[in-house]
Amino acid sequence: MIPSDRLAHTSRWRKRALAEKALLSLGLLVLALALPPWPGAALVLAAAVVCSVTAGTPLGALVRLAAGPLAFILTGAATLTVQGGPEGLHFSQAGAHQAGLLVLRSLAAVSALLLLTVTTPASDLVQGLRRLGLPAEVAEVALTTYRLLFVLLDTAAAIHTSQEARLGTVGWRRRIRSTGLLLGNLLPRALDRARRLELGLAARGFDGSLRTLSPARPVRPANVAIIAMLLIALGGAGLWI
Amino acid sequence: MILEARGLHYAYAGGVAALDGLDLSVERGRRLAILGPNGAGKTTLLMHLNGTLRPAAGQVLLDGEVQTHGRAALAAWRRRVGLVLQEPDDQLFAPSVAEDVSFGPLNLGLSEDETRARVTEALDSLRIGDLAERPTHMLSFGQKKRVAIAGAVAMRPEVLLLDEPTAGLDQFGAVHLLAVLEKLRTGGATLVFTTHDVDLAWAWADTVALFVNGKVVRQGPPEDVLADTEALAQARLKPPLLLDLGLAARDHGWLPPSARLPRTRAEAMALMENISR
Amino acid sequence: MILEARGLHYAYAGGVAALDGLDLSVERGRRLAILGPNGAGKTTLLMHLNGTLRPAAGQVLLDGEVQTHGRAALAAWRRRVGLVLQEPDDQLFAPSVAEDVSFGPLNLGLSEDETRARVTEALDSLRIGDLAERPTHMLSFGQKKRVAIAGAVAMRPEVLLLDEPTAGLDQFGAVHLLAVLEKLRTGGATLVFTTHDVDLAWAWADTVALFVNGKVVRQGPPEDVLADTEALAQARLKPPLLLDLGLAARDHGWLPPSARLPRTRAEAMALMENISR
Amino acid sequence: MHIMEGFLPVAHAVGWTVASAPFVVVGARRLKTVLAEHPEARLSLGAAGAFAFVLSALKLPSVTGSCSHPTGTGLGAITMGPAVMSVLGTIVLLFQALLLAHGGLTTLGANVFSMAIAGPWIAWGVWKLAGKMGAPAALAVFLGAFLGDLGTYVVTSVQLALAFPDATSGILGAFLKFGGIFAITQLPLAVAEGLLTVVVVNLLASRQAGTESKA
Lengths: 241, 277, 277, 215
Description:
heterotetramer; B: Rossmann fold; six-stranded mixed β-sheet; four-stranded antiparallel β-sheet; 11 helices; 40% helix; D: Arp2/3 complex 21 kDa subunit ARPC3; 79% helix; Cobalt ECF transporter T component CbiQ (chain A); Cobalt_transport_CbiQ (chain A); ECF_CbiQ (chain A)
């Protein structure tokens, strides 16, 4: 199970139109990058978190989702606090200031991305991209990927459990070997599953394309107007304060 | 006969014969159980009955007409004969339930409105209308199984082929699934299912075909086929428990020779009541 | 008590409680059936009993000692408690049967000679010595299932946890598997298995634990637990058919109140004979 | 090694997207041609994509104990070829960003360049070259996967250095800083990934052999 996917499917905003959610999240993302980090990014960060929580995401879950990216952001930013010189590396006040702003900006951007991921299943986004002109073939491969990755994650978890039960994950060498065996079994099984899926879909008239009918979720102009006003207000505040 | 197989031959890549001159006939509006042990090739047989696999020799007839494997012919054939595989993950590919069920109707060339109507109808007939918007990967096994059947039902097939429909389901899940299938049948569908479960075949089939070594060695009413201990032994199977008990009751004179043998728990309990009187 | 669970709590990522204050005790050398409907969390429970999952609260005791989840403690724990999952494909990862079964013994740090001896012993005890050199992915489902069990048996666990051991097997396969497991038990192993099949629990368990809503609501001898219609109904289950028939026979006075109820087909047929006398 | 959302300045994000686009478009064209001939391949490609996602979501044991993931670029390139990997890799990176917040949308171009283009081509090239020079199969696989993984890490370090040059020592100094700090996790990971890929490729080969001898 993927936490953000589960959150997206159980979100209060699950049935909101894709365009509304995309406009809000991507708008915030653009603002996070375009506005000066202080106070612009801070405002975006606050807005994204408030929206995510309003959509029904527990704050704790949001923090856990942000933890992974944050580790990278902090490591990356840490390198900016030191400067190379003729006598080796030394701490840099200016670098630290730059790093702080970078962390703030990245965090705002990550929270905007998270707002999208906890309200909108990735499959909806791919369907949206398809309507915007993504080639159908690529979209269909992507949607098959989405569907099968859950099946394969379950399988991988079960294989891992059985390896643990037989002490296959104790020690570095055994873990490498066990992980290799896991993957070496998973790939043929993934392809085998694709073959069986082909047979299963043939029975339903598979003629080469994987067309389906998505539920219609009409855009509400009022919501779009509210989102636009929010984004303009944030942009204005970020520039003027 | 809505569906017939005549002299089907088919061998796997390794050269092992899966079907070896198989004959089978399916009566319209009835429930046929194809009974055999695991690995006997029951799935392979089903895949011949809707044209997914092409026999090396022999024919499949639909309403008396020999079917061919050209593109257009196959499409028409599969429209009339639906197939539900044992493992629902082998048939569900779309991210959500309603999207998945819409695949078949769209392939039939139906309009969006018609497709939507078909999806609703199919989900309702499987009693899973409330799952329409759920993501496929968050369903339980039993729910997936019903969605897979809805995917076939949405194409309104005349014959529905089901591979081990109750495998992996618990009592409750199996009872519910059978109730839903029964409703489809009274709606006019013909049901053909494979199983290795003699008790299921006994409780629920109108006709049983015993599948051994690539052939149907016996086909007929359950009380004949499932009482044929010798034929069953070839398939490494034993008679259903209730059939055995019913025959013993008949032997002891507690059931008149012409009376129906108990097929369900309720009938068996009623028989016990009768004996005590 | 060789194995005990006390007050286990565990919730899935979504916040749904899987185990909700679960207690369970397993007697040495016996067969315990954990009975519950699909999706109840039976697998999750097994994964706590060998330390794969760590409870939010509660303890697992082995021979009276509380188990901990440190690296070394876990290794010792899993050496003593083996786990066999439902799907054999998830457990066979080496190219050949013998290589696969050697995975556990090698991880125990045994020498090559000792490992070879263990592999032979495990395959023989599962009666599949002839499969040793076969590639794992070419086996039948029933063969894979036995190889997976051999993989656990080769580590000589004191307790063997089996998730739905007979699921997917036909009559013949199930009977053979149970015979093999019975041999392991007489060899000293304690067997704990999950199932949704009340008839299997009735035919084969010494003790039944009824698992409902994250708790064991009843644990005891099969004739008590499986006759408790109310408790079973909570788990969406019905009593075993033979138990129902046996109780009816007892009610009608054909069986003395103290006599053992029929658990197998043979015993039921013998009872019919008795009645007729 | 992913660059997270919002970490790159706008100009760099756009620049790397533009740099990656031709590879992905050409890959998508290839995909279209393949799928026109083999419509059913969309299922197996989807399965391969799902596999790549699972692969990259696995935690590998690393010496520092931090959570690190195999890139899968080597295995993907060796089993599927580097051209298809550019599209599949992009799909996988998109899902990683959307499902795990690992990487990002504005940094997708940069991540695609390092992990779906540079890594696979390096891995594939090294693997082929080592094979031609007579290296044993396992060594060729190891070198391909090892250097493919190292390659993505070097490219990412370059990307970061270009975005954040050191005030005194410039881009080169910044590259050494970023390279140095990530080397702690990436070097052992590259070794692990190389070994892992050897195990996988060996297993796949032995399964293949088993199937053929039986058939």
